[in-house]
Amino acid sequence: MQLTTSRTSNYHSQRVDLYPAHQRAIWRRKMTTTAIIGLGNMGKGIAKRLSGETNLVLSSRNAETAIAFAAALGNGAEVLDIDNAVQRADVIILALPYEAAIEVAKHSGLSGKIVIDITNPVKPDFSGLTIGHTTSAAEELQAIAPSAKIVKAYNTVFASIFDLPAAQTATVPVFLAGNDHDAVSKVEALVTASGFKAEKTGALDAARLIEPLAMLNIRFGYALGRGTSIAPAWQDL
Ligand SMILES: NC(=O)c1ccc[n+]([C@@H]2O[C@H](COP(=O)([O-])OP(=O)(O)OC[C@H]3O[C@@H](n4cnc5c(N)ncnc54)[C@H](OP(=O)(O)O)[C@@H]3O)[C@@H](O)[C@H]2O)c1
Q: Which is the closest atom of ligand 1 to the Cα of 119?
């Protein structure tokens, strides 16, 4: 018996693993491979929650820091340059500032892949969004990468929330929007595995609504002084 990080919960919890190493290796081969591009606050937060739930590939401009982070994360997380990460992954998470995500969206390797857009196109002083109403960051990325399957996710959740135990965030909604039904379903599974409640909002134009919702959350957190331990809630009454 070996004590390993649980595949069914988050990185805070542990369980006694009853399965032999070769069985775990087979599961790993069947798991989705997810690349996270950009290891800032959100990239690291999502990586911690997805560690052990997917084959993780990390890509950063600073390979040395990324290798140290991957080693601390465990569960076989790999560090690759952006070209190899994009090639290897089934799902690519752009954990980047909006402007950097726009540049990465030009990468030809994204064609046919599921690409998760977590960005909020915020003004430098966080006073509002730079685009909206008639378009969204997600739709701009889709226009640049028309063959990629862009799915909006995670943009309404503050980075600090990812450090909470998964049980505490299981009812926190992560709003999903995308034009490809299968891609949205796969992202739904990843979001659930990362310890959040996936809320499907329809086609990608719903990002026009989800991005301002993130801005409202930022307003609560900073301008209205409620801190970054808050998240939207959505209820059926
Ligand atoms: N922070 C939040 O609470 C939060 C919540 C929801 C959504 N978001 C959105 O998530 C995205 C990432 O936010 P974050 O808070 O993780 O930002 P961050 O801490 O600044 O990290 C962004 C990372 O992107 C990479 N990067 C690549 N090109 C870059 C460039 N030209 N300029 C700056 N960084 C570049 C860097 O990673 P490497 O150095 O590893 O390459 C950097 O650490 C943003 O679009 C943000 O709007 C943030």
A: 45
Sorting pLDDT into bands at 50, 70 and 90, what band is 191? very high
Q: How far is residue 83's CA from residue 109's CA, in Å, rounded to a whole number?
A: 7
Ligand 1 and 38: CB distance under 6 A:
yes
Mutation test of ligand 1: which of 37, 39, 41, 60 has the most ligand atoms closer than 8 Å to its C-beta? 41
pLDDT of residue 19: 60
Query: Model's pTM, two decimal places?
Result: 0.91
The domain locations on the chain are: 22-223
pLDDT band per the 50, 70, 90 thresholds, residue 199: very high
For residue 65, the ligand 1 atom closest to its alpha carbon is 40
Question: In this predicted structure, what is the pLDDT of residue 30?
Answer: 73
Cα 42 to middle of ligand 1, angstroms: 7
- Ligand 1 atom nearest residue 121's Cα: 47
CATH of 22-223, one of 3.40.50.620, 3.10.450.50, 3.30.70.580, 3.40.50.720: 3.40.50.720
- Dist. CA 35–CA 3, nearest whole Å: 26
SS3 53: coil
